[in-house]
Amino acid sequence: MPLSPEQEAEIAEQRSTARPTLRATSPGMEAHLYTAHPVLDHGFVRVVDYMGDDAAICQAARVSYGRGTKSVSNDEGLIRYLMRHWHSTPFEMCEVKFHVKLPVFVARQWIRHRTANVNEYSARYSILDREFYIPEPDQLAAQSVINNQGRGAALSGEEAQRVLRFLQDDASRAYDHYQEMISTEGQQGLARELARMNLPANIYTQWYWKVDLHNLLHFLRLRADSHAQYEIRVYAETMCRIVADWVPFAYAAFEDYRLGGATLSKTALDCLRRMLKGEEVTQENSGMSKGEWREFRATLD
Questions:
Q1: Which of 134, 159, 174, 252 is the most exposed place for a label (fewest CB within 10 A)?
Q2: Helix axes 290-300, 266-276, angle to 10 degrees
Q3: Where does FAD bind (predicted)?
Q4: Half-sphere exposure for 136 (CA within 13 Å, toward CB)
Q5: Do residue 122 and residue 227 come from a single domain?
Q6: 214 annotated among ligand-binding-site residues
Q7: pLDDT digit string (tens) for 196-237?
Q8: Mind listing the pLDDT tens digit for each residue in 29-59?
Q9: Number of folded domains in the chain?
Q10: Which residue has the higher pLDDT, 142 or 178?
């Protein structure tokens, strides 16, 4: 299960205690504080702390650019301007600290985003719980034939059952041996920092992940995308819902210009202009590779 009874009791206690403050708060984010949002079979995302709101973005922008923003009459319009023109530092004025429980192989993808502060549960000092990510049957898929990083058609029938059996049996066996190696009954017991190397990549870990809004939105743009791996995408989608409540103006602009928008190369823009003039443009006369052309057409369709 995502939360133990002890963790649920701790969260309930934290949520029951109000703390007066003079700093700016976001009603939407206050509703999320400490609450664990379940992800996958044993994972979760919860907000531990945050700083700033939509107004903090505008405040920083107006300090930075002074009179140049006087013509922007409202916060929403200013935020959309900043997002549209790829400004970054005003969005860095907002920060959030997440507590995330996730499979190790997802964590190894996630940690490639090197623009956050991370502190992970240490298996050198503590014993990891017997919790493994086992995919739902509809997430068991073959290798894509067109994308070396992607999935193809879902496995079915006996093949799907065989794969699930391997995942469950191998994880359980590895954890059994992990426990036996660190046992101290009648033996010295292997050090935890060594015994952990026998654990599979689908075991769950936990960390605190603190990031500013600019870098969080960059993470979400990549990981909430439909092409991202499912297991990290569901975490990103959960965080998107949290961010939408935290900074609604900033998230709406992000959704419009980043998630729902597209960036065209100079060559692609030239092809689009030719198309609008009625010219027949093909991959052969476009100046693009087959891959670029396929992506360009997908953007337009």
A1: 159
A2: 50
A3: 89, 112-114, 120, 212-214, 218
A4: 8
A5: yes
A6: yes
A7: 999 999 999 999 999 999 999 999 999 999 889 999 999 999
A8: 999 999 999 999 999 999 999 999 999 999 8
A9: 3
A10: 178
